[in-house]
Amino acid sequence: MAQSIKSIYKPSYPQKYIGNANNIICRSSWERKFCHWCDLNPNIIAWGSEEIRIKYYDPVKQKVRNYFPDFIIKVKEQSGEIKKYIVEIKPKKETVAPKPRSRTTKSYLHEVYTYATNQAKWKAAQEFCEDNMIGFKIITEQELGIK
Predict the structure, then answer these.
(1) What letter does residue 78 receive in the DSSP assignment?
(2) In the chain, N or C: fewer CB atoms in 10 Å?
(3) How many Å apart are CA 140 and CA 146, to the nearest integer?
(4) Exposure of 137 by Cβ count < 10 A (0-12 exposed, 13-18 middle, 19+ buried)?
């Protein structure tokens, strides 16, 4: 599981960062690893962390809220094409619906609510991306090479 240790990332190439390169906040060790990858990857032309706001309807809180996706990246693909992506870093278990259980515990309800909220955020993000010709990716520990 990603350690939710909040830290500030200091980029080696601040000119690539979209936003204030002196205030890049990582909310987990996984986000920090992704920041490092974006910073040092020569195919990443530009990147930002929590620089975009997307409105979505939260089915748990039953109100419109703001979603700040983890990252936006501008990439030079292997084909030479330049593409933008919104990237969300999440544990794999939060990307699949929780299996029904015989007892409804607080932890089970938390998993259900988290999944429902994430689905609403990601639906809004996908619509935003389609409207703006941007790709949307959810990256888990598998893609980050974390066991």
Answers:
(1) T
(2) C
(3) 9
(4) middle
Tens-place pLDDT, residues 69-101: 999 999 999 999 999 999 999 999 999 999 999
CATH number of 7-144: 3.40.1350
Q: What is the pLDDT of residue 2?
A: 56
CA distance 48 to 38: 9
pTM over 0.70: yes
Domain boundaries, the chain: 7-144
Judge contact between 83 and 77, C-beta under 8 A: yes
Distance CA 92, CA 4 (A): 15
What is the CA 55 to chain-centroid distance, rounded?
Answer: 15
| pLDDT-derived band at 147, boundaries 50, 70, 90 | confident
SS3 2: coil
Q: Give, as one character, the DSSP assignment of residue 17.
A: B
Which residues are catalytic, by number? 31, 70, 90
